[in-house]
Design goal:
Blueprint: E1 2-7, E2 13-18, H1 24-31, E3 50-53, H2 55-61, H3 66-74, E4 82-84, E5 97-100
Parallel strand pairs: 1-5
Antiparallel strand pairs: 1-2, 3-4, 3-5
The chain binds FE2/S2 (inorganic) cluster.
């Protein structure tokens, strides 16, 4: 299991554990993280599942591919280290991952 911490806009930190090879979005939804809407269900077609990594974790998670980059360009507000959580597969190297959830999306 991969442990992840979501830093929510209300200042709370929510920790959860997800199975390897499931997505960060699925974990967020199972934890009821309010800011993760995930309208398209993980098809990389809505950009409402955005999370923001710090620089350390962005280097581990890696940059978005071309398709994801296009979706992020349509999101309300993004940062250079934004990713769509449905495109992040949980893997051992992500154990301890910390991501911030934007205030509003979707
Ligand atoms: S859930 Fe729609 S882009 Fe991630």
């Amino acid at each position: 299991m991969v442990e992840v911490t979501f830093l929510c806009p209300d200042g709370t930190a929510v920790q959860g554990r997800g199975a390897e090879d499931t997505t960060l979005m699925e974990l967020a939804k199972s934890l009821g993280i309010a800011g993760i809407v995930a309208e398209c269900g993980g098809a990389c077609a809505c950009a409402t599942c955005q999370v923001v990594c710090d620089e350390h974790w962005f280097a581990v998670v890696g940059p978005p591919n071309e398709n994801e980059t296009e979706m992020l360009e349509m999101a309300a507000s993004t940062s250079l280290t934004s990713r769509l959580s449905c495109q992040i597969r949980l893997a051992p190297e992500l154990h301890g991952l910390v991501v911030s959830v934007p205030e509003e999306q979707g």
